[in-house]
Amino acid sequence: MGKRPISSIKFISKGLAVLYEDKDILVVDKPAGLLTVATEREKSRTAHSILTDYIRTGCGRCRKRIFVVHRLDRDTSGILIFAKSEEAMLRLKAQWKQTEKKYLAVVHGKCEKSSGTITTYLAEDKDYNVYSTADSTKGKLSQTAYKVIRVTNRFSLLEVVLLTGRKNQIRVHLADIGHPIVGDTKYGNKNESQPRMALHARSISFKHPFSGIQLSFASEVPVFFTTLIGRIDWDNGLTRPATSQLKSSQMQVSSTGHS
Prior knowledge:
The chain is of the alpha+beta class. The chain has helices spanning 47-56, 86-94, 169-176, 223-229; strands spanning 10-13, 16-21, 25-30, 67-68, 77-83, 100-108, 115-124, 130-133, 140-151, 155-162, 199-207, 214-218.
């Protein structure tokens, strides 16, 4: 028998919360300010290292590993999936195009269109800055769909769906249409002073890598967003995740691990 799924949220370190766990996967809610994995330039504490310590707790010298399925930028909060085996990771990546990923973004200004899809080729320069180009030989085809949820005098709240998954894609695409994300000093206003960037991985829906059961998770909207745009809930026009067995205001789940 595998480990039974966690039925309540468990905070483990630096605001990182485990939403769901079975013998094959971990689904976590990452706070803004925490790297997903270490990089050549950044070796600080990461979600990956925290979770590695977590699964090795009480295990002595065991060498259990956590495998990265996807990443969020340091300043982006929200839901991340990690695998407990290479096979589980490979299976999740193989079905990644069918995985539904929705974000919330608070952007500067009022969008002219209530919805749309941004399509460009994204490339990266030597200073690690991602940019849009019309040249298909220089960049990778990238598509971001968005829907306006709420508008205030200064900001717009968008629900964003990643149709492709490129580095910094949402940030670059929203800046391209003249509505950079609040707090994004890399692709927006470099002199802007905010406590964090207003981009949040709100929900994810995918098939369990072994059982095939559909899993859906929805994360709480960060308090910072409500200070900018007001209270946000499902009645604001947000799209619910595909599976609708809500067990708490922070988690949607319907699954057991494979036997």
